[in-house]
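lol forgot to send this yesterday, sorry. struct tokens for the thing we talked abt
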């Protein structure tokens, strides 16, 4: 009797797992169908940037090198003059990863539109500001960029990425002599560092903005007086001079299915 009961419970559990898997596959199929309808309607390529993983086609985790390599392969296949639509929902991540995606977008000749239904913080903001058109939900946000000090060691070519505010917190309790020893250690073992401000302002953003807007980006995003966790609303972005467009309902529907 007891064995029969266990057998029934096991069968129910297996059926439950099968049903969950079936619903998951059906959801992915439905989302990809909506994306395909969008691409056909707008004659564009649709990709998704996030900091999570998903089985959805053309969904890329910006903090995953394997996904970024797949993204490179995707850009190789498509026509460089075709429009690209990017749905982005991310808290950010390491600049050395996001620059990989930014390089691909920089080389693309077609129009790039970014859709922000909820958030594109930190490095997500870097990508959003590079787009020709920015669409945002009225409650969506961008954020200042957390400047990162990136060292590449000479001997091992390992990259060490430290957020500037983290470095300040790490060194706040050190004495002057200890801090000097720490900086000396970095200077001996790190042969390269990256200035994010120079990369963005002298290279990427000059392709999109005039001198006045570059100064605004410098002041409010790259070297702001506000903390990294501050979130810029749509109204604030418009006051800075950015042309923020209303988010289409079709995009909001796709986003709600992927990011409930």
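and heres what i got for the seq, position by position
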């Amino acid at each position: 009797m007891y064995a029969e009961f266990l057998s029934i419970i096991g069968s129910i559990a297996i059926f439950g797992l099968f049903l969950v898997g079936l619903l998951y596959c059906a959801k992915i199929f439905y989302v990809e169908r909506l994306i395909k309808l969008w691409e056909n309607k707008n004659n564009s390529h649709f990709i998704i940037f996030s900091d999570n993983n998903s089985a959805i086609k053309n969904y890329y985790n910006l903090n995953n090198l394997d996904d970024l390599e797949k993204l490179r392969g995707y850009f190789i296949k498509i026509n460089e003059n075709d429009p690209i639509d990017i749905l982005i929902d991310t808290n950010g991540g390491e600049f050395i990863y996001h620059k990989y995606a930014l390089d691909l977008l920089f080389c693309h000749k077609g129009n790039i539109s970014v859709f922000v239904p909820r958030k594109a913080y930190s490095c997500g903001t870097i990508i959003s500001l590079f787009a020709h058109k920015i669409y945002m939900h009225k409650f969506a946000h961008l954020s200042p960029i957390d400047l990162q000090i990136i060292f590449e060691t000479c001997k091992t070519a390992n990259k060490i990425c430290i957020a500037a505010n983290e470095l300040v917190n790490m060194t706040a309790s050190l004495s002057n002599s200890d801090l000097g020893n720490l900086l000396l250690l970095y200077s001996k073992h790190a042969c390269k560092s990256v200035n994010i401000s120079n990369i963005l302002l002298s290279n990427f953003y000059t392709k999109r903005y005039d001198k006045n807007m570059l100064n605004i980006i410098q002041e409010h995003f790259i070297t702001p007086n506000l903390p990294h966790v501050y979130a810029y609303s749509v109204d604030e972005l418009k006051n800075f001079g950015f042309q923020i467009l209303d988010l289409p309902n079709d995009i909001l529907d796709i986003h709600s299915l992927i990011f409930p």
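The longest strand covers residues 45-50. anyway ping me if u want another try
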